[in-house]
Amino acid sequence: MARWEPGAPERLQKAALELFATRGYEQTTATEIAQSVGLTERTFFRHFSDKREVLFYGQDVFVQAFLDGVDTAPSGASPIEIVACALQSAASLFPDERRPHSRQRQSVIEQNPALQERESHKLASLATTVADALRARGVDELAATLAAESGATVFGIAFTQWIREGEQRSLADISAHVLRELLTLTGKATASRSIVTTPTRN
Amino acid sequence: MARWEPGAPERLQKAALELFATRGYEQTTATEIAQSVGLTERTFFRHFSDKREVLFYGQDVFVQAFLDGVDTAPSGASPIEIVACALQSAASLFPDERRPHSRQRQSVIEQNPALQERESHKLASLATTVADALRARGVDELAATLAAESGATVFGIAFTQWIREGEQRSLADISAHVLRELLTLTGKATASRSIVTTPTRN
């Protein structure tokens, strides 16, 4: 049995990010990542199911922040209001000083389709988990799914904006702005009778 | 140079679906898929970049259906109205007789995380492409992204419902219903001042 390595996942993630950014994702092996911080390949795979997963360490904390936001929403809050609380709670995980790290990580992900796939799926899984939490609060099946998916969409768009060069606003502010835009956009559409009253178009 | 095989991608997809459903995705190789319809591994990889991709043959036609819907939306339509047209156009690709095939395909995807990742990413790519088309029609950057992402969300939810056992409604009807639910949900939230007027909560 290998002994427990304190902080190993964090060290491995940091090393992986550096190596992926300098050498490229495809050109870096899990063994090289592990060795660069004095650990073994075996330790790497005890913490991560595959090489991609090292960039997603902390996903459980991220999802939990959304769930904490759902829990703290006032009783009687509408599904979208609950999601607004979840978004603000999640944003608190990304203080301004984390922006350079997030930017570097995203840049690596955007250069590799396999990492993009993993990321798309993580965002989809987040929406599924948040939808379950909404249903547990008594929100209808369909409304829960739509509200949670919209929350994941808003987070994704806001995060992309937050890491843009020159962006100064906090992730919380950007998230709130994007959510308001979504409500404005759909509010306009609701005012149009053609979508709301016509069941089918073809 | 291998000669051109008419209908090879369709035959490979059909064979792959059968083999994945009966033997399992992991237990089936690209060579076995190809051989089961009298083709070679080389032919398989001329059509598909990897084993996963065989289940996503036709994605370009699917994306084009959304784009056709965007094109045919009346001038002056709001972003969500354009997306409603795109959804109805996409739904026309899935007549009732295609339901058993779609159901079998989805069942295979749901049993394999690698296929789920590819699917999540395809849906994300669809949203990116539709957002570009909305921008080309003059829709604002953020509104285009939000409307396109919402369209992809509505499609995903409607499709999941469409392939449920016992579901009788057409995909067009379900899509219209899910979109109306989204508008109702966000319409209610717009009526609540707390989200629309408070820029930040923490």
Automatic annotation (TrEMBL), chains A, B:
Keyword terms of this UniProt record: DNA-binding, Transcription, Transcription regulation
Pfam families: TetR_C_14, TetR_N
PROSITE patterns: HTH_TETR_1, HTH_TETR_2
DNA-binding region, residue intervals: 29-48
InterPro entries named in the record: DNA-bd_HTH_TetR-type_CS, Homeodomain-like_sf, HTH-type_TetR-like_transc_reg, HTH_TetR, MftR_C
Domain called HTH tetR-type: residue spans: 6-66
Source superkingdom: Bacteria
Protein name listed in UniProt: TetR/AcrR family transcriptional regulator
Organism of provenance: Nonomuraea marmarensis
